[in-house]
Amino acid sequence: MSESEPADLEKFRSETRAWLEANCPPEMRKPVTSDSDVFWGGRNTKFASEPQRLWFERMRDKGWTVPDWPREYGGGGLSAAEHKVLRAEMARMGARPPLSSFGIWMLGPALLKYGNEAQKREHLPDIAAGLIRWCQGYSEPNAGSDLASLQTRAESDGDDFVITGSKIWTSYANYADWIFCLVRTDPAAKKHDGISFILFDMASKGVTTKPILLISGYSPFCETFFDGVRVPKSHVVGTVNRGWDVAKYLLQHERAMISGMGERGVGRPLGQIAADSVGTDAQGKLDDSMLRGRIASFDVDEAALAACAERAVDLAKAGQAHPAFSSAMKYYGTELNKRRHEILMSAGGVNALEWESERSRQGARPRAWLRTKANSIEGGTTEVMLGIVAKRILDLPGA
Fold it and tell me: What residues form the membrane-spanning segments (predicted)?
């Protein structure tokens, strides 16, 4: 506790710590070990355990699945300082997030800024309560890094748009209930114009998904197809043909979210994990000086990322954040996460190559390592992120 912390914030910290200790089950204070440990919510959701259900419902009822959202939309109504205290107290005890959600990380902030009141009332409380699981319809087969080249079209038909086209790399589309999607509503306009941001139900007639198998053996990504999907025009967020404004704002939050994978969060430090395989010397140090040096360097960079993330949150809450800072964070966080898994593979030696044995939990380590190769592509490639930093932050000539 800081000596300069205001008395009311000190009281909030004390009460928050006591509430978390009383309400977070011990099982929810342990590192995530499988996909089932993560609760995503949605229409067809199932809890992996009774502690997972209790933790989610207690946090939901408190408004702390989205602590800083307004209470009228299902949030906790916390101030920036209070939210920071809550995050710190959850980290102190190793508490898992009660709900993981693209609705929380990406769509929610966009709706709060650009949505009309009816849209906020309809969607935000359901996101906070984990009732609807969302996916993101941005990238297309010929519009990845150059997203504004998207060709999925939405043609006007009375009070509806009729949507035809396809998206790719749609994370968890096969599990999602609704999609927030970029569509071209004016094909005659310039590339960045004529795009609209629209919401619709994945159960709508004409929507199909197809998982994409990755080299890791997992299929978090999908192809998503739209064949004459009818969507009311009232589902457009913001102004028709001005969806690029919403898209850019949402991307800031997506990239900030992705950058978070660079932080360890809940789980054992790398040095402890490496010691399981490598062992320790007489002084209790990791018995591989080169690996020890790599881990020490990583730990310093991880701490720097965590400090930058806190600064980014503070600046965002104060309305002072640079719009391109999330690109720098995304680049650094994803590169750091790849380094983490390279170190884990090195520390594990030949045993880290096990793919299907029970000893390796069906190849958890190599599969996770392979999955990280997509980190520098998803949410904007490393090259695009560096270009944004060069142009908008460093103001380099010719950028």
Answer: none
Tokens representing 268 are 């054992």
- From 125, 101, 113, 112, select the one nearest 177 (Cα to Cα): 101
- Enumerate long-range contacts of 21-28, CB under 8 Å, 24 or more apart: 21/93, 23/55, 23/58, 23/59, 24/55, 24/58, 24/93, 24/95, 25/51, 25/54, 25/55, 26/51, 27/51, 27/52, 28/52, 28/55, 28/95, 28/96, 28/98
Axis-axis angle for helices 243-259, 289-317 (nearest 10): 140
Which DSSP string corresponds to 316-379? HHTT---TTHHHHHHHHHHHHHHHHHHHHHHHHGGGGG--S-GGGTTTHHHHHHHHGGGTTTTT
Contact 55, 96 (CB under 8 A): yes
Q: State pLDDT tens for residues 87-133.
A: 999 989 999 999 999 999 999 999 999 999 999 999 999 999 999 99
